[in-house]
Design goal:
alpha/beta, 8 helices, five-stranded mixed sheet
Length: about 210
């Protein structure tokens, strides 16, 4: 088999387009919410970007996977991947008691600055005692996704994953072998595109948080 550098496999990460909650800053985990009209336009633009990327490489992706939540599936469809299989491990972080709430609201309730990657979601008071995922649990899911697509990349083929902001920020830490809390350092806008690959025998980030309209 040739080396990764000769085959140059890449993995495209696509965050879903804008929703009402992403626009307002509300944490949207398992709530199954639709894209806004602007989010649909973003998804179409992302599809144009990915098609141009594929044309330049002379091949389409061998594997495309989407989160099963509507906002991701709709983004995948508008980007040209209507038939993409879903993978439950690509679902967004289950925020539990932080679901639907903004960082400012939670910080005010706790009386201090709250950061989800540092503090987690289970420090938030819960009326029904519902717990969310710890970041390590999200990382375990992301690692399972990477294990499933690694054979495709090892064959020199490309992969596209359509998912959610925090899940993808955790996934890049697992790609790089970092602490999942460092996902806080990887900002990711709606419908943003990122590229992961290989260089000199190492897993690399080849592009991050690229706007779909460029």
């Amino acid at each position: 088999m040739s080396t990764h550098d000769e085959l140059d496999p890449q993995m495209v990460l696509l965050r879903h387009g804008e929703t009402e909650w992403s626009a307002s800053g509300q944490h949207t985990g398992t709530t199954d919410i639709d894209l806004t009209a602007a989010g649909e336009q973003q998804a179409v633009a992302a599809g144009v970007w990915i098609q141009r990327w594929a044309d330049e490489r002379g091949r389409g992706p061998a594997t495309v996977l989407s989160s099963p939540l509507r906002r991701a599936r709709r983004t995948a469809a508008l980007a040209g991947f209507a038939d993409a299989p879903t993978d439950a491990d690509l679902v967004e972080w289950d925020y539990g008691p932080a679901e639907g709430r903004t960082t400012a609201e939670i910080s005010a309730e706790l009386g201090r600055e709250w950061l989800v990657f540092r503090d987690g979601v289970n420090v938030v008071p819960s009326a029904d005692e519902r717990r969310g995922e710890e970041v390590e649990e999200v990382a375990a899911r992301a690692a399972r996704v990477l294990a499933r697509v690694e054979p495709t990349l090892q064959e020199g083929e490309d992969v596209v994953l359509v998912a959610h902001g925090h899940l993808l920020r955790v996934l890049v830490t697992q790609w790089l072998g970092l602490d999942p809390h460092l996902g806080a350092r990887f900002e990711l806008g709606t419908a943003a595109i990122s590229l992961l690959g290989y260089g000199h025998g190492l897993r690399t980030v080849e592009g991050w948080n690229l706007p779909p309209g460029r």
